[in-house]
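Deliverable D2.4 — example input (structure tokens):
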């Protein structure tokens, strides 16, 4: 079973930075895309950033210029560097890897439990 673990959340003040990590493990061939999402109570899950195997990245409008997504394919790890954090960035941050098995079967429904980010004003 593929496992997804997020790390790096915490409590920071507005203007500070955090770097989140997402480690993907299990019996798959490779991760071919990955998204970072965030969720707050009563709100829909929001895409924060995504990256493909070709390093093409996309960002939500609210984080452009402040957040950077990257990955380390050798270690099946992705990162989300978050700078100039704002109180409205407070949320549970979740990682969603799209994996390929060795027979080229894709799976896109693996999620971690998330890591909580709280930004105080």
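Example output (designed residues):
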């Amino acid at each position: 079973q593929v496992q997804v673990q997020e790390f790096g959340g915490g409590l920071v003040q507005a203007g500070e930075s955090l770097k989140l990590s997402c480690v993907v493990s299990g019996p798959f061939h490779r991760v071919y895309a990955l998204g970072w999402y965030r969720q707050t109570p009563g709100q829909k899950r929001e895409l924060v950033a995504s990256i493909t195997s070709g390093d093409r990245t996309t960002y939500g409008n609210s984080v452009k210029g402040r957040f950077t997504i990257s990955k380390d394919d050798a270690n099946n790890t992705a990162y989300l560097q978050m700078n100039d954090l704002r109180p409205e960035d407070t949320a549970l941050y979740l990682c969603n890897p799209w994996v390929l098995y060795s027979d080229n079967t894709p799976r896109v429904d693996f999620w971690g439990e998330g890591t909580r980010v709280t930004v105080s004003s």
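DSSP finds no helices and eleven strands in the chain.
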